[in-house]
Transposase IS4 family protein (mine drainage metagenome), 368 residues
Amino acid sequence: MLTPARARELLQQTVSQVREGTFPYQPRPLPRRDWTLYDRAATHEARDLLDLLGSVTETLAERVPAWAEIPGDHIGRDPIVTLDRVRGLLWQSYRGVANRPGASELGLLGRELGVGRNYSYSTVARAYHDPEVLLALRTLLWLTNEPVIGEERGFAIDGSGFATAVAHHYASSRGRQRGTEREAGAFPSAPHPWVRNVANIGLDYQLIAGWKSWTDPAKGELSAFEEVFRMTAALHPGAKIQLGDGLYAVRWVVGEVAEAGMEARFLPRRDVTLKCLGEPAWPKSLWGLVKEPQEWLRAYHERSRVEAFWGAIKARNPSKVRKRTVHARVVEATLRAVVYNLRRLCYWQWVAGLDPIPDGMGPLPVEA
């Protein structure tokens, strides 16, 4: 009979072995991939993304007409509508260029992007400070998930930072950070502020289903969990599992995941116990690590997909965040997230035959 004391001992022993890298884990077989399809997707990426960007923003214009209309109470020359500025910023982010080159490319590609009228680099700069632009980007992040709603098994959450200076590398700073600070969820200190981000990534299609960016150094990674997870749960109510590293192995997080009807897989600390302490979902989330550790860890190690996501998005955007103000930096980071989703949809169009254009029928965030 497995007594509570023996169960706690087995749990702590398994967690220690996993953290030390000595657990005899049996890895899953590697899936076979047709790399020819990936090659085709890469060679068609720019054209496909240009078309998809126009289609997705047109869908958004139908859902939120105010963003595609000129306000009736303006004075003087007609302003550039919100979605035209969003289209320009998204293409600028995809190309990784500054404001002036970004504005110049509108003269070449404005019609393909669906931009009604070309505008200057100063309009591009002002768009980064417009709250409506940020709201439109968050809604686009929602829309880009519509093609895979009901298709995702689960999600993996993790945070990382974008540099705001050239001599500024997140992984190096993270490696120098002390263990107590890492366990508390604090971002590493640096001479220049990070743009802090948390993303929740789908396990099957690797799309961002939850995102938050901020610059306040007083706020740690765990503070963004509730907002990011609620967006994910609203988008994908049929998901079954939520993965994350040890930072998220706290009772209130496990409880929130359980309330959404999902199973939590967070690797706890070495001194973990099965005491619920007011949260019934806590021992349930860890019992598999006692009885069936191979199966539990096989699901948990899919968390590596979110780490691969951060490597991919930083490889695609190796430059620093250029903007100087808080709001503009959040907009620039959110642009990278939306462009990442658009690029993934373009790839899945070739690799899995997925229709990347949202149907425009699902619910939008309440604030939109």
Q: What stands out?
A: Strands lie at 154-162, 195-202, 208-214, 241-244, 263-266.
